[in-house]
UniProtKB/TrEMBL annotation:
<dbReference type="GO" id="GO:0045259">
    <property type="term" value="C:proton-transporting ATP synthase complex"/>
</dbReference>
<dbReference type="InterPro" id="IPR001421">
    <property type="entry name" value="ATP8_metazoa"/>
</dbReference>
<keyword id="KW-0472">Membrane</keyword>
<dbReference type="GO" id="GO:0015986">
    <property type="term" value="P:proton motive force-driven ATP synthesis"/>
</dbReference>
<dbReference type="InterPro" id="IPR050635">
    <property type="entry name" value="ATPase_protein_8"/>
</dbReference>
<keyword id="KW-0496">Mitochondrion</keyword>
<keyword id="KW-0812">Transmembrane</keyword>
<dbReference type="GO" id="GO:0015078">
    <property type="term" value="F:proton transmembrane transporter activity"/>
</dbReference>
<protein>
    <recommendedName>
        <fullName>ATP synthase complex subunit 8</fullName>
    </recommendedName>
</protein>
<dbReference type="Pfam" id="PF00895">
    <property type="entry name" value="ATP-synt_8"/>
</dbReference>
<keyword id="KW-0406">Ion transport</keyword>
<keyword id="KW-0138">CF(0)</keyword>
<keyword id="KW-0813">Transport</keyword>
<dbReference type="GO" id="GO:0031966">
    <property type="term" value="C:mitochondrial membrane"/>
</dbReference>
<keyword id="KW-0375">Hydrogen ion transport</keyword>
<keyword id="KW-0066">ATP synthesis</keyword>
<comment type="similarity">
    <text>Belongs to the ATPase protein 8 family.</text>
</comment>
Amino acid sequence: MPQLNPSPWFLTMLLSWLTFSLIIQPKLLSFITTNSPSDKSTTAMKTTPWTWPWT
């Protein structure tokens, strides 16, 4: 069965992973996120309980 023979595809997979790991990934990681997370206040909002009309 030809799909079980890794010989023609192993080099292609290896080269694609090396290309991604060595060239594309550092370029993608160099971008600075434009929407950095900010610290939110930890104060809790005052909530009022809901009054049900049938109770």
